[in-house]
TrEMBL record:
It catalyses: L-glutamyl-tRNA(Gln) + L-glutamine + ATP + H2O = L-glutaminyl-tRNA(Gln) + L-glutamate + ADP + phosphate + H(+). GO terms for molecular function: ATP binding; glutaminyl-tRNA synthase (glutamine-hydrolyzing) activity; transferase activity. The gene is gatA. It comes from Phormidesmis priestleyi Ana. The keyword Transferase applies. This is Glutamyl-tRNA(Gln) amidotransferase subunit A. PANTHER family: GLUTAMYL-TRNA(GLN) AMIDOTRANSFERASE SUBUNIT A (PTHR11895:SF151), TRANSAMIDASE (PTHR11895). Allows the formation of correctly charged Gln-tRNA(Gln) through the transamidation of misacylated Glu-tRNA(Gln) in organisms which lack glutaminyl-tRNA synthetase. The reaction takes place in the presence of glutamine and ATP through an activated gamma-phospho-Glu-tRNA(Gln). SUPFAM superfamilies: Amidase signature (AS) enzymes. The active site is at 75 (charge relay system), 150 (charge relay system), 174 (acyl-ester intermediate). InterPro entries: Amidase, Amidase_CS, Amidase_dom, AS_sf, GatA. Gene3D superfamilies: Amidase signature (AS) domain.
Length: 487
């Protein structure tokens, strides 16, 4: 059942007050936090003030929206006015934004209750939260394993019962991959559907904010609240936002009759864990039983996604992170340690950025340098176009594409110590960002170690309705989303 709908029922029936719900959620978050380390900051004062405002509206007899009084965790790369926003980096350890991001502003207006800012890989660069400058978040299903990344804190907070829903950002799989690792639903919208104003930029042509929840319905409700045009974001799309919950079909034996599902052939090759492949194939059979026609689709340029991404994303990161120079805001090494301007730049950036961030800045700076732009960046952009064409051709034949979300289940912290093995985990999610498409991960099973497995659903531009329709139909016919870790 939708956590948002149930909490809304409790509020409107006056079974519980918003303050009682907020306090109970904060208590739960604090109780589990020593095990999970999901949060950079818990914001009890802000949460209780927001909850009191909702209770005042209810007491005055005013109608409240579906998100009023609902606790939510926010990834700590979204600017929150007056609340520390660190990007899990020493560079921004003490940064308090003077403005609100568009998405958090919309949630605040809707009456949502912000219980805290969640841990991430530094500047959203990573797939395990091990690159956080502060702590490694633990997977609620096995605290010796990672929750994925970069939105690992947001995923772990939902899976671990610290928050009913949360927000993350997805540049190459950073919502869908942790959703898969943590056994919850994670959704990356069409590029431009959700405003990026106030999202601390990693790779501006790829970044997109999206929701996490235990159910598809919760992510649908949350997406509706944050989506929509924003004049502050030049890439924001001017489109009407539908009521996404209307696409969640109920009580029909074959809710997917008339839909065609495409299996991406290239995602079932070398490197795919056998148990993950088996679970995803079983999920595809389940989709067939729900009335969907299924066919295999080849996206031949899919395999080039990782190579092209790790040129384009670092190039954009190199440009975006140039602003952290110790002059305007963020960390600044004291003059006594850096006697001149160049020394101050060097020491500030050396101390402020972690290894993975430095690695990507250097790759990007090199690829953009004189004599290498055409050989690397321009070529990667051409590959990006070919990947998009593959998807365009696929969607002439099918409504939704399916694949494993990640080739494996969650690995143990410290197990993957080379960057390449980490980058290859994004093999199935990256092409979706390169093409600007919406994608979703829904739970579809567990391996023999009890770790969750995710099914990735991908639809064409602005066809989030299809993801919600197919994802909800699958979810309602299985019980994977009802499983919860024992902490």
């Amino acid at each position: 059942m939708s956590a948002i709908r149930e909490l809304h029922r409790q509020l409107t029936s006056k079974e519980r007050s918003a303050v009682e719900i907020a306090q109970a959620q904060l208590d739960q978050a604090q109780a589990v936090e020593p095990k999970l380390k999901s949060f950079v900051s818990l914001t009890a004062e802000k949460a209780l003030a927001q909850a009191q405002a909702v209770d005042a509206k209810i007491a005055a007899g005013e109608d409240i929206g579906q998100l009023a009084g609902i606790p939510i965790a926010i990834k700590d790369n979204l600017c929150t006015k007056g609340i520390r926003t660190t990007c899990s980096s020493k560079m921004l350890e003490n940064f308090v934004p003077p403005y609100e991001s568009t998405v958090t502003g919309r949630l605040d207006e809707a009456g949502a209750v912000f219980i805290g800012k969640t841990n991430l890989d530094e500047f959203a660069m990573g797939g395990s939260t091990e690159n956080s400058a502060f702590q490694t978040t633990c997977n609620p299903w096995d605290i010796t394993r990672v929750p994925g990344g970069s939105s690992g804190g947001s995923a772990a907070a939902v899976a671990g019962g610290q928050s009913p829903v949360s927000l993350g950002s997805d540049t190459g799989g950073s919502i869908r991959q942790p959703a898969s690792f943590c056994g919850i639903v994670g959704m990356k919208p069409t590029y431009g559907l959700v405003s990026r104003f106030g999202l601390v930029a990693f790779a501006s042509s790829l970044d997109q904010i999206g929701p996490f929840g235990r159910t598809v319905e919760d992510t649908a409700i949350l997406l509706e609240a944050i989506a929509g045009h924003d004049p502050k974001d030049a890439t924001s799309l001017k489109v009407k936002i539908p009521n996404y919950t209307q696409f969640l079909k109920k009580d029909t034996k074959q809710p997917l009759k008339g839909r065609t599902i495409g299996i991406i052939k290239e995602t079932f090759g070398e490197g795919l864990d056998t148990q993950v492949g088996d679970a995803v194939n079983a999920a595809i059979e389940q989709l067939k039983s729900l009335g969907a026609a299924v066919k295999t689709i080849s996206c031949s340029k899919f395999d080039y996604g990782v190579s092209a991404y790790y040129i384009i994303a670092p190039c954009e990161a190199s440009a975006n992170l140039a602003r952290y120079d110790g002059v305007r805001y963020g960390l600044r090494v004291q003059e006594s340690e850096a006697p001149n301007l160049l020394s101050m730049y060097n020491k500030t950036r050396a101390e402020g950025f972690g290894d993975e961030v430095k690695r990507r800045i250097m790759i990007g700076t090199y690829a953009l340098s004189a004599g290498y732009y055409d050989a690397f960046y321009l070529k990667a952009q051409k590959v990006r176009t070919l990947i998009k064409q593959d998807f365009d051709n696929a969607f002439k034949e099918v409504d939704v594409l399916v694949s494993p979300t990640v080739p494996t289940t969650a690995f143990k912290a410290g197990e993957k110590d080379d960057p390449l093995s980490m980058y290859l985990l994004d093999l199935m999610t990256i092409p979706v960002n390169m093409a600007g498409l919406p994608g979703m991960s829904v739970p579809c099973g567990f391996d023999t170690d009890g770790m969750p497995i995710g099914l990735q659903l991908v639809s064409n531009v602005l066809r989030e309705d299809l993801l919600f329709e197919v994802g909800h139909a699958y979810e309602q016919s299985t019980n994977w989303h009802q499983q919860q870790p024992k902490l």
